[in-house]
Specification:
mainly beta, 7-stranded mixed β-sheet, 4-stranded antiparallel β-sheet, 47% strand, globular
Length: 126
């Protein structure tokens, strides 16, 4: 069973930057769609960014477009979420999720992902 582990969270001031990492146990990460999700206190989990299998195009939530970039290093089995110009609304627990799919565009719907990390806290505050 695939395992994914997030790292890189923490406290950052408004306007700052942070890069989250998601390391997977899969031998070939190109066979998986990868999504980043977040959940703020009292709110539902929402999709932030995703990348389809075999490096198909990425997709971003409107709230983060232009500020967030998802990328992958297959050799390191790691997917990154680079976040710039962070706002207080970006605060939450961030989750990495994966879905085995040989070919396919990604999705920002949490229900389409089978494997989830434990989540990592990101706090944007001065």
């Amino acid at each position: 069973q695939l395992q994914v582990v997030e790292s890189g969270g923490g406290l950052v001031p408004p306007g700052g930057s942070l890069t989250l990492s998601c390391t997977a146990s899969a031998i070939n990460l190109n066979n998986y769609r990868i999504g980043w999700f977040r959940q703020a206190p009292g709110k539902e989990r929402e999709g932030v960014a995703c990348q389809g299998s075999r490096d198909t195009s990425a997709n971003y939530a409107d709230s983060v477009k232009g500020r967030v970039t998802i990328s992958k290093d297959s050799a390191k089995r790691t997917v990154y979420l680079q976040m710039n110009n962070l706002k207080s609304d970006d605060t939450g627990v961030y989750y990495c999720a994966a879905d085995f799919r040989l070919f396919g565009l990604c999705s920002l719907s949490a229900s389409e992902y089978d494997y989830w990390g434990q989540g990592i806290q990101v706090t944007v505050s001065s």
